[in-house]
Specification:
Layout lengths: L1 E5 L22 E6 L3 E3 L6 H39 L9 H29 L1 H11 L1 H10 L7 H10 L1 H15 L7 H29 L9 H4 L2 H14 L2 E2 L6 H9 L1 H31 L6 E3 L2 E3 L3 H21 L1 H22 L5 H32 L12 H19 L1 H16 L3 H29 L4
Parallel strand pairs: 3-4
Antiparallel strand pairs: 1-2, 2-3, 5-6
């Protein structure tokens, strides 16, 4: 057991906007490393503790959290790529069945996010990261076995697609865990970076899997490699999380605080906003390969040598990269302002997609969707940055609440997980609405207009509930 001493505790809460830390007074606080890599006395708001080792500890946990969450998103999005190649592999499913295979991982992943949130305070961030990484082996092995047999019944395929939801659950526990490691002034950037690193898994899966299944095949497609390829990386994540991550004694389960969060109206407002941002990102990421294949089949796969490359990965890529910058912009300008701008841009980009479809210009279609993905990524970071700010403001008066207040941190962590769970249902709704539009009206235009209307409503809600009150009070939200 080792320990380092840190002078000072804080008297005040972090303000709603980033500001220089106040001088700290009081007796020294001690950071103790216990057996099992548990940390006791962790306080990222203590400038001395942060400068003398805390920053290094937080960065190390963030790196392994990103890698594990990255693999979770890879597994979560495998079916969005695999379904496009199923006909070539001999599977005969209807459009409706294909959309269910695309959306089922999001439905299960969103549902798992709520219990995953509470696993961190119950078992510790390190232990749960190991478990959640190990669970990814189940859907990858099952997929590899099932897609090798075209006679696999659809209900079995749907069940295996549902197992990919394990990857979606990882996000909530990862984000809740990292929220404990960083000071208030850095949460926007840290959470944005953690989320972006995970979100990149969707882009990597959509870029790499089409290449793998074509270059390893002798003529047709080698779909099982879409599962087998990731198993060594999952093993690395398990070992890395075991040996390099930490758990925090202060991150204890507080179901009273969690119940208080559920009763807080702002939780549900933020959750709806997150459906609009993250739900759009993950939903359109999942369905983008099929949208391209249906509307522009000549661009569904570009052949480079013996490999097939799909441009669908570009959407998930730019959306992922935009997310941390959304958090950083929110740190500087306020999350409500950035989220409002994001919804406006998303609505305009969707209208441009609608206008492009009759013309048949793929370049314009792709450019409009790229703008939509960027705006959703920026909005993701902005909404997530709003969570700790809103719940800090809703807590005890600033003069009575110390920096790093444990109850406030627990409430924020619980809110992060719940909002992540609700928002992820957008990943189910987007493909289902597009599928309903395709089967019911023969096109995607009706669903796209529904999305435009939804973004307009979310813009009004953000402005009315957060942006205008913040402007009146002179504080950023």
């Amino acid at each position: 057991m080792t320990a380092t001493s840190n002078p000072g505790t804080s008297q005040h809460s972090a303000p709603l906007t980033a500001a220089p830390e106040r001088p700290r007074i009081g007796p020294p606080a001690t950071l103790t490393i216990l057996r099992g890599r548990w940390l006791e006395g962790w306080n990222p708001e203590d400038p001395h503790q942060w400068a003398t080792g805390g920053k290094t500890i937080a960065a190390r946990n963030l790196r392994w959290s990103i890698f594990t969450e990255f693999l979770g998103f890879v597994v979560w999005q495998l079916w969005s790529v695999v379904v496009v190649a199923l006909p070539e592999a001999g599977f005969r499913y209807t459009d409706g069945q294909i959309f269910w295979l695309i959306s089922m991982p999001s439905l299960v992943g969103a549902t798992l996010r709520l219990p995953y949130t509470f696993m961190v305070p119950k078992f510790g961030g390190r232990a749960w990261t190991v478990v959640s990484a190990a669970l990814l082996l189940i859907p990858t092995v099952a997929l590899a076995i099932a897609v090798a047999h075209p006679e696999t019944p659809f209900p079995v395929m749907l069940l295996i697609a549902a197992l990919a939801g394990f990857g979606g659950g990882n996000f909530a526990s990862s984000m809740a865990n990292i929220s404990y490691f960083y000071p208030q002034r850095m949460k926007g950037w840290a959470l944005g970076l953690n989320a972006a690193g995970g979100n990149l898994g969707a882009a990597v899966a959509q870029f790499l899997v089409p290449i793998l299944i074509t270059v390893t095949a002798a003529g047709a497609v080698d779909l099982p490699i879409a599962g087998w390829f990731w198993i060594p990386f999952i093993a690395i994540a398990i070992v890395g999380a075991t040996t390099r991550m930490n758990s925090l004694r202060g991150a204890k389960a507080d179901f009273r605080a969690s119940l208080a969060v559920v009763k807080e109206p702002h939780l549900w407002v933020l959750a709806v906003l997150y459906i609009g941002t993250f739900g759009s990102f993950i939903g359109f990421s999942a369905v983008f390969p099929k949208l391209i294949a249906d509307e522009f089949p000549q661009f569904a796969a570009l052949h480079v040598g013996g490999a097939a490359v799909s441009l669908a990965f570009l959407g998930a890529l730019v959306g992922s990269l935009a997310r941390p910058w959304g958090g950083r912009l929110a740190d500087r300008m306020g999350g409500a302002a950035v989220a409002s701008a994001s919804f406006l841009v998303m609505a305009i980009a969707t209208v441009c997609v609608i206008l492009t479809l009759p013309i048949g210009g793929f370049a314009t279609f792709l450019a409009c969707f790229i703008v939509l993905f960027i705006a959703s990524g920026v909005g993701n970071g902005a909404v997530y940055r709003m969570i700790p700010t809103v719940f800090a403001a809703r807590g005890r008066p600033e003069a009575a609440r110390p920096l790093g207040d444990v109850s406030a941190l627990r409430m924020t962590a619980a809110a992060i997980g719940i909002i992540a769970a609700v928002g992820a249902y957008g990943g189910f709704l987007v493909p289902q609405l597009l599928g309903a539009s395709k089967t019911g009206f023969g096109d995607y235009t009706h669903a796209l207009w529904w999305f435009v209307a939804g973004y307009a409503v979310l813009l009004v809600v953000t402005v009315a509930v957060y942006l205008v009150p913040a402007a009146r009070s002179g504080r950023r939200v």
